[in-house]
Amino acid sequence: MKVLHIFFISLVALMFSVSHAAELLISPVNIDIPPGEKSALLMLQNNSNKAIKIQVRVRPWDWDEEVNQPRNIVVSPSSLNIQPGKQQVVRVVNVGPVSHPDREQLYRVILDEIPDLEQPAEKGLVLRVRYALPLFVGGPDLSISRIDDIEKLTKIWQQLLSYKYDAVTRQLVFKNQATGHARISKVKLVDAEGKESAVFAGLLGYVLARSEAAFSVPELPLAEGVQLYAEVNGVTLEILADGR
Asked: Where in this chain does the record put each Pili assembly chaperone N-terminal domain (predicted)?
């Protein structure tokens, strides 16, 4: 019974967070400071009918609650009180050495909504909503946001990104040989007749530079003539099988 109770509370919190997330519009959801630049802007818009208090922090990509904010990245302002229907802009600044295309630095921008304890909680629940946004500083130009050349990016990623499928664990394993990250989403299969079947409709995840990452997916009917497509850093392309 205790386990069911915890699961129920978690499910309520998840449902609340999903519906509540629509009240805070965040743009962009992938923050990028290209090589040679020092800052990026993050826009927050309050679409609710009450003020929203937000605390903004930066953490390393692999972080926990004990990790302090990196000294070379600052945000301003770090605390916001956004009125209903209003927007506020947060500046994310690299105060360290100028970023370089050969060295990609990865962080997460953490947005914590601070509950208004003076207001009565809905059904006795006080929930704290957290958003974690990826922040990339420097690194090569491997995304549509930096290079508006789909053909060039397609050729690059078909050379540097490959996959293999583990039918036992039902995992797609991506191998990224580039010096920058690959954001993988909208994964689908296309058969020899051009018929498409969705594998994962949204964001599947990130494969960091020169690394591998495995993602659990439904069973894939891979066969002769079936191709795997995905959106990689904003470009839809065929991803070749590892060793092909």
From this structure: 26-137
The first and second tokens of residue 201, run together, are 């409709």
Report whether pLDDT(116) > 90: no
**DSSP letter at 243?**
T
Provide the residue type at 239 as one letter: I
Question: Which residue is listed with tokens 């962009």?
Answer: 28
Helix (H) or strand (E) holding 184: strand 182-190
- pLDDT per residue as tens digits for the range 84-95: 999 999 999 999
Q: Report strand pairing: 52-60 vs 79-82.
A: antiparallel
User: How many helices (H) and strands (E) would you count in the chain?
Assistant: 2, 16
Mind listing the pLDDT tens digit for each residue in 149-172? Answer: 999 999 999 999 999 999 999 999
In whole angstroms, what is the distance from residue 110 CA to residue 113 CA? 10
d(CA 26, CA 16): 18
**Rounded Cα gap, residues 195 and 206, in angstroms:** 27
